[in-house]
Amino acid sequence: MTQPPELTIEHPSKIKTFDINSALPSRIILLVDDDADTRQLTRAFLNNFGFEVDCAGSAAEALARFNPLMHQLVLTDNSMPGMTGGEMAQIIKQKSPSTPVLMCSGSPPNDTSAIDIFIKKPTYLLAIKDAIDKLLPAK
Predict the structure, then answer these.
(1) What is the CATH number of the domain that holds 41?
(2) At residue 97, does pLDDT exceed 60?
(3) Strands of the 101-105 sheet, one edge to the other
């Protein structure tokens, strides 16, 4: 008859703890735009600066994906089919008042109370990066 393997119990000082917050990337942006080319270009640009970008093609998709524990900022267009970026921003702010919303659009929403910074299109991508830097503290 074979003996069962010995069980070794680690001393508590040798056990590694896992902090769920440190496991998440620290700078995740939720990018919302119905134009796929704009999403792809903006994502690639922001990735170069160390941002992780989670993309949504509509306001409804963005609201389904939005997680205030994960997304540090929402970057959105205003003019989209279905729900506008301004309407979505109102809902985002109801769920998470501290999450900054940056809007980059050719047409601003009628109600800008949920928008932290508005940038008029056309613009340079560096203007978006500068606005993000103003809204997010450096880590």
Answers:
(1) 3.40.50.2300
(2) yes
(3) 52-56, 28-32, 73-76, 101-105, 117-120
